[in-house]
Design a protein that fits this description.
Layout: H1 3-11, H2 16-28, H3 33-45, E1 72-81, E2 90-93, E3 98-102, H4 109-119, E4 142-149, E5 156-159, E6 171-173, H5 175-183, E7 186-187, H6 196-217, H7 224-228, H8 236-242, H9 250-257, H10 261-276, H11 282-309, H12 312-339, H13 351-368, H14 392-406, H15 408-429, H16 435-447, H17 449-474, H18 490-509, H19 513-534, H20 536-557, H21 562-590, E8 598-606, E9 609-616, H22 630-645, E10 654-657, H23 665-678, E11 684-688, H24 691-704, E12 708-716, E13 719-724, H25 734-753, H26 757-783, H27 808-823, H28 841-862
Parallel strand pairs: 3-11, 3-12, 6-10, 10-11
Antiparallel strand pairs: 1-2, 1-4, 4-5, 7-9, 8-9, 12-13
Helix pairs in contact: 2-3, 2-6, 3-6, 5-22, 6-20, 6-21, 9-20, 10-18, 10-19, 11-16, 11-18, 12-15, 16-17, 21-22, 23-24, 25-26, 25-28, 26-27, 26-28
Length: 863
């Protein structure tokens, strides 16, 4: 399987959020802060800490065969301002193959390297400071780098402090990186596509874990100790709270905190009884409690009477009686209308009239005609009302009236009215609060304030109920919907009565120490449960907190990188390690490094990264820097750097900062050749202050046919890092030296035309000195064909045949030119009498042309 297929197979057993993270990494390359937030929520949702989120795991459709992509190459650095002592508005250019940036110490190379290390990949980054020397450290750097991705593509641009995934593929090697390869364990930053997913996934684990730990820390504060401090020690509640955890069931806490009315009464009884047992005169207390018992009994009876009178049945009965009376009254009205003829006085048969009739009945039966039926209408009888003699019609009417009054309907109506009157009088005469009840409540309140308050509140509410009912009955209205319901507190009063009676019983029976201990323990248990009930929500919150804390711990476990590291290690060993170690040995061979046995060894992994280290084969416990010289150390570091590059299919550019600053001649040329060879495959940029190394690079570039771009940085009055395409005089080949002499001759000729003779002579003598050096370089480079070159350790014997054509005229030309140049070389003091005039501009130009013609003639001849 490919690396990606291996990762896909392995990912099936990973947490859902990691599978989603792998998909995002494969598709996007990096994870944004928003991605980390999403992945954190997915991780939390798997443990019930967040709402369920949609998860899109890595699948086969996400793992195409991908490579590193087109190589990245640098085009230029533009420094506008703000970096070290670099001059403003400077552009340093780079070629597509080999670029050599030469500059003396202090010329500004380090400033450009620091810019590159901030934009590109490097083992050790360095901060960029302003021009501290001249006090401009506050100016913000303004820098840009232009680069290309692949051949013929449009230019891209990086600006200071921005992130660019392309430039991170360009690598920088400098002295600090060299030390890193030797002294630190190093992970392979260049890897085949797919292996970097382990690093990135491990990085995501760290980011998600950081967020989870931050949220978990907010759950550290527990409120449980505050509750435990209130709970009596040794009780079941205290033991229960000591074991509260994320696994505790809330219903178990709620059951323990649930106190029935009986439990509350029992606690109150125990607390009072324990106090009673401490009384100085128990018998006197018994008497007081007995008196209280009688009063509470009377209170209970009063409450029973009040609640019976105001019960729903009593109220309902009164309103039903009134309704029946109204109904019977309507029936009586209809009967009256049918019974009495027209023409009678208004109201006859009505309530007033009936009262009048009953009065007449009593007068007749009790005084006028005792023992006689009413109405008495026999012969000679008189009317009981008007006391007139009764004629036949009057007697008939009186009998008719009596029949009406004596009818069953009228009797029922009278009965209903009597019943309703009595029922209404009950509500009217009822005293919900009596003086006796009030006094009893005052006494109860001393020890049982809650009970007294409950009874007082109930009586007050029931009084409102009585008034509301009575008003509705009096005004012949329906009962209001907001009529207070009956509040019954008889049970409270009876419980109090039982408690007092139990206290009396306990006092009369007395109690030994064991009984008191049992009572105390029972009271403690009930008291603990009561306290728990009052703080139940705090305990439930604590259980929920511990559940969340435990869930966060499980989420954090899902961010551990052990499994990632193990898989990274196994895959890296299979795909990278062998190639890395082989490449390192090949690089040592290319650098002719074979006198000290050194190898790249695996040293295990951590957090998704597999590490390697350079060790001495025969002494693995000894640190390399203690054995190898500076030059050898640099050679080994460069070999490790190139070996690391070999592990990835990426030919992006590489930058070297003084790669041979510590190397002696033994390594200088092998390193130069290695860099030039690499520039045939990728862009190579070399910063150096060593002219000999520069010449070695030029030599191998010529031999291997590599295009070379020269860049020269200098320190001038405007600052360091001033860029030019021309190398310094000492590094120029003959052809460019001749071009430089021609350019300088123009300035000397101008001085002569301006009649500045002193200035001209000074320039001319300087140019003759340079001309002599050019002839020397021409002898080495042209006449001898580069067979022997200064500072080069070998002799190019394969080129010796070409010097067979050297003629006496060639040598004569050299002798004449060198003699003339030496005449005007600065530093020779001639006698005043022998002083000859300095050759004029035309003669100087001719002498320069003689060198050019001499070089052209030999090269043309040898072609």
């Amino acid at each position: 399987m490919t690396v990606l297929q291996e990762i896909l197979e392995w990912s099936q057993e990973r947490p859902a959020w990691q599978r989603d993270a792998l998909r995002r990494l494969v598709l996007d390359g990096e994870l944004s802060e928003e991605d980390i937030d999403d992945l954190t929520e997915i991780c939390k949702s798997s443990r019930g800490l967040a709402e369920q989120r949609d998860v899109l795991p890595l699948g086969r459709e996400h793992v195409p065969d991908r490579t590193a992509g087109a190589p990245v190459s640098l085009v230029s650095i533009f420094h506008q301002r703000g970096v070290n002592a670099l001059a403003d508005n400077q552009t340093l250019r780079f070629g597509p193959g080999l670029t050599v940036v030469y500059g003396d110490n202090g010329a500004g190379k380090t400033g450009y390297i620091r810019i590159l290390k901030n934009a590109c990949r490097t083992r050790v980054q360095e901060p960029i400071l302003g021009n501290i020397v001249f006090g401009n450290k506050t100016n913000a750097p303004v820098v840009s780098i232009k680069y290309k991705v692949g051949e013929g593509s449009d230019l891209r641009e990086w600006t200071f402090r921005s992130e660019d995934p392309f430039l991170s593929r360009v690598s920088v090697f400098d002295t600090k990186c060299a030390a890193f390869y030797l002294t630190e364990k190093t992970d392979v930053l260049f890897r085949p596509f797919g292996l970097d997913l382990f690093d990135k996934l491990a990085k995501a684990c760290k980011a998600v874990r950081t967020k989870l730990e931050s949220e978990q820390r907010l759950l550290n504060a527990s409120t449980l100790p505050a509750v435990q401090a209130m709970i009596p020690d040794g009780t079941d509640v205290a033991n229960f709270l000591a074991k509260v955890s994320s696994l505790t069931k809330p219903e178990d806490v709620q059951a323990l905190a649930q106190l029935s009315k009986e439990d509350e009464n029992r606690l109150e009884f125990l607390e009072k009884s324990l106090l009673d047992l401490q009384a100085n005169d128990p018998q006197k207390l018994v008497q007081q409690l007995t008196v209280r018992t009688d009063r509470v009994v009377a209170l209970v009876r009063h409450l029973e009477a009040v609640e019976a009178a105001l019960s729903d049945d009593a109220v309902k009965a009164a309103f039903e009686t009134r309704a029946k009376g109204l109904y019977k009254s309507e029936e009586a009205k209809r009967l009256r209308e049918a019974t009495f003829p027209e023409g009678l006085l208004a109201g006859t048969g009505g309530d007033t009239w009936r009262a009048f009739w009953e009065s007449a009945r009593r007068f007749s039966t009790e005084q006028a005609y005792p023992g006689k039926p009413f109405p008495f209408v026999e012969e000679g009888a008189k009317c009981s009302l008007c006391q007139q003699s009764l004629d036949h019609a009057a007697a008939h009417r009186l009998k008719q009236f009596e029949e009406f009054v004596a009818s069953a309907l009228e009797q029922e109506l009278r009965q209903l009215r009597d019943d309703f009157r009595r029922q209404r009088e009950v509500f009217a005469d009822l005293k919900t609060m009596t003086e006796a009840a009030e006094e009893t409540l005052k006494e109860i309140r001393i020890e049982h304030e809650a009970v007294a308050d409950a009874i007082s509140a109930a009586l007050a509410s029931n009084e409102k109920r009585r008034v509301t009912v009575l008003l509705a009955l009096k005004e012949n209205k329906d009962l209001d919907a907001d009529c207070p319901a009956l509040v019954s507190v008889i049970a409270d009063a009876e419980s109090l009565l039982v408690q007092i009676e139990e206290r009396i019983k306990t006092l009369r029976a007395g109690a030994n120490d064991q009984v008191r201990r049992n009572m105390t323990a029972e009271a403690q248990e009930l008291r603990a449960r009561k306290i728990l009930a009052g703080n139940l929500q705090m305990v439930l919150n604590e259980i929920e907190r511990q559940k969340k804390y435990a869930a966060y711990s499980l989420c954090i476990d899902d961010t551990k990188t052990n499994t990632i590291t193990a898989k990274s290690t196994s895959v890296t060993k299979a795909v990278v390690s062998q190639k890395l170690k082989q490449s390192f040995q090949e690089e040592l061979d290319k650098l002719s490094f074979d006198h000290v046995e050194v190898e790249l060894k695996e040293i295990g992994g951590k957090e998704g990264v597999f590490h390697h280290r350079l060790i001495l084969t025969r002494a693995p416990g000894v640190e390399l820097p203690k054995v190898a010289s500076e030059g050898e150390q640099r050679c080994l570091s460069i070999a490790a750097f190139f070996a690391e590059l070999s592990t990835a299919d990426d030919l992006s550019g590489i930058v070297f900062d003084d790669p041979m600053s510590s190397l002696d001649f033994q390594w200088r040329h092998t390193v130069a050749r290695r860099l030039v060879e690499e520039s045939k495959k990728r862009q190579v940029i070399v910063f150096t202050h060593d002219v000999v190394f520069l010449l070695s690079l030029r030599q191998y570039a010529d031999e291997l046919g590599v295009e070379l771009l020269d860049q020269h940085v200098r320190h001038l009055g405007i600052g360091s890092g001033v860029c030019t395409d021309e190398l310094p005089w000492v590094a120029l080949p003959v052809k460019k030296k001749i071009g430089y002499l021609k350019k300088c001759w123009q300035e000397a000729a101008r001085r002569s035309r301006d009649r500045d003779q002193d200035g001209y002579e000074k320039e001319a003598k300087f140019l003759y000195g340079l001309l002599r050096e050019a002839w020397e370089r021409a002898i080495e480079e042209v006449l001898l064909g580069g067979i022997v070159v200064r500072y080069r350790p070998g002799v190019q014997t394969q080129h010796i045949a070409q010097i067979a054509d050297i003629s006496p005229d060639d040598c004569k030309s050299v002798e004449i030119a060198m003699t003339k140049c030496s005449t005007w070389l600065p530093g020779h003091d001639e006698a005043a009498a022998a002083r000859a005039p300095v050759p004029g501009p035309k003669e100087l130009e001719a002498d320069i042309r003689d060198l050019e013609n001499w070089v052209d003639e030999i090269r043309k001849r040898r072609k």
